[in-house]
Amino acid sequence: MTATPFPVGEIVAARRPHRKDAARNYDALLDAAREAFAEHGADASLEDIARRAGVGIGTLYRNFPTRRDLFESVYADDVNALCRAAVELADREPWEALTAWLNRFSGYMVTKRAVREALDGESDIFQSCRDSMFAAGGPLLERAQRAGVARTDMDFGDLVRMVAGITATAFEDDAQRDRVLAIALDGVRTTR
Length: 192
Prior knowledge:
Pfam families: TetR_C_43, TetR_N. By secondary structure, the protein is mostly helical. The protein has one domain: Tetracycline Repressor, domain 2 (Orthogonal Bundle). Helices cover 73% and strands 0% of the residues. Helix 1 packs across helix 8. The longest helix has 23 residues.
């Protein structure tokens, strides 16, 4: 897999400020928002996010004029990281690359539920993120299928839905979620 630019990468680059100090504040706000959304859901306080980032509320609004802008930017930034991970993992053995990416994807799904629900699928960015995710992860499944280590009677959409269904379930802890995901992925793997 080459370092093909994904549509979401262009969105992330276009939104991120170019000045170093402004970019630092922007990144701090995204990190703080991720944390706050994971803890408090879509209703996390913007004032709390600014405080966590170590900036004033005016800096938050300069970067993200609306709450939706903040949701979209967090979502796009995280999907962009998943796309980069797919490229980085592509040199591994096919099954290892696929499962490593799906484990990252499952962790992303668990922590991003509030953001995804707030965007409710109507955002143009949501569609670009979905297209980018499929363009990044799909080849990992296809490569595993060509290597004979993954079932060929499924497509990437089936796999994403399976993992999304697993991550939508409440678990005692991350270890239990990881075990259940591993059990499900055993059903995807073929025996050679």
